[in-house]
Amino acid sequence: xxxxxxxxxxxxxxxxxxxxxxxxxxxxxxxxxKIESNNNTRFNQVNEISIVVKSIFKFAPFVxxxxxxxxxQTPDIINETLQWDESYRSRLKLVDHKExxxxxxxxxxxxxxxxxxxxxxxxxxxxxxxxYFNDDMFLIKATKIEDWFEDGKPLVRGKWLxxxxxxxxxxxxxxxxxxxxxxxxxxxxQALSAAIEGYDKKYFRTFHTPRALxxxxxxxxxxxxxxxxxxxxxxxxxxxxxxxxxxLIWHYSIKNKLAxxxxxxxxEEVNFKPxxxxxxxxxxxxKAVKSLDVLFLNxxxxxxxxxxxxxxxxxxxxNIVHIDLTKK
Length: 328
What we know:
The chain is α/β, with parallel strands linked by helices. The protein contains 13 helices and 12 strands. The protein has helices spanning 19-29, 48-59, 76-80, 86-89, 97-100, 113-116, 168-176, 186-196, 215-224, 226-233, 245-255, 278-290, 307-321; strands at residues 7-12, 63-70, 92-96, 129-134, 137-139, 149-150, 153-162, 202-206, 211-214, 260-262, 267-271, 296-300. A 5-stranded mixed beta sheet has the order 3-2-1-4-9, sandwiched between helices. Strands 6, 7, 8 and 10 form a 4-stranded mixed beta sheet that branches. It is globular, with a radius of gyration of 19 Å. The two termini are 14 Å apart. Mean pLDDT is 90; it is low at 33-38 and 40-44.
């Protein structure tokens, strides 16, 4: 770890199985017009965060602290730390939403990932350069600082695509299936975020890899546009017209030479469906592990796997990230 230029990690996490969380969510969703915000798989978890944390300790040893951002919840891994060596235990820190929303407490509780991740730069003590993880993003190979930051600038992984309104077949699809245009989409949210920064013709499309960011750039940006921030964090559930803060700031940073881009994605992404073939899922996970070029594994909606297959996937992941945290 470089104490002069530390790099922290942030993981946003929610336990959607928690009765208090369910009660709170149900209380607020009654009077909210939502399209997809209450799809349970967005909130459910199968203790993936334990694997994410261990993968960071093992494959990104340069990370100073790991912050878990949550809403009055405590993941099981916090109890595990009682058995860890202090050199690891002291680096895992739990942060409540009230800390990052401290100047906007009126919008809490929030069940809106787009709003919550807009506020992560306000974690007390967070390093200037940091890496943002979702709790379904795993490291499966050793990484070095240069995989995340080049010359101190965030490295953004993706490729340039045309804005959707400039693609003819997407416009026809929009006319034929208008209801689908009302649904939230990761790609559409990215395109919208780029457009806010003046990218009318193209946008830099990224994928579900952990995200290298700079706290100071984020804070300064939203200090300059406070009304944009307020509008973004107000909805308690995710809306289709919300931007992605990291995509927005990346386009701002690319334009102002504060970030660098690469088309080396180095990701295996598996999006589970209720009818996903267990064997196919296992093959893709094993393939990612064997591939020398894949650093990141994204497993969306793990909770949809049937129990036997889920246990096999979890076991593979546990074997990959195995690290003895009881010793320094």
